[in-house]
Amino acid sequence: MVIAQDTEYVLLDEPTNNLDIYHATNMMKTVRRLCDELGKTVILVLHEINYAAFYSDYICAFKDGKIAKFGTVEEIMTKENLSEIYQVDFEILNIAGKPLSIYY
Length: 104
Prior knowledge:
- Helices cover 39% and strands 34% of the residues.
- It is built from five helices and six strands.
- A two-stranded parallel ribbon has the order 1-2. A two-stranded antiparallel sheet has the order 3-4.
- The radius of gyration is 14 Å and the shape is globular.
- The chain starts with a helix and ends with a strand.
C-alpha cells in the first residue's frame, strides 16, 4: 500500500517484529530497495542493531527515552558506543564490509 501511494517518506515501527529470519531479512532488503531504487526516505524503529547496521545509512540510538547517539553506521557501530548504550560487552566484526555486533 505504501509503495502504491508513492509517498516520499515511509515510517515503519518494528517491521521485522514477529518475522522469522528469512522474512525479516527480505523485509529489510525491500526497505533498502525503496531507498536505493525509488528514492524514498525510510525511518524505521528496530530493536535488532545488526539489521540497522547492515541496511541503514544512519542510526539514531535511544537510551532511557532520549537520543544517546546519532551518526552514520560506522560512527555508531563501535564497541565503545554500543557498550555505553546497552551496558553489555560487544565485539564488532566486519562482514561483507558491514559491522556485525556480537554481544555477551
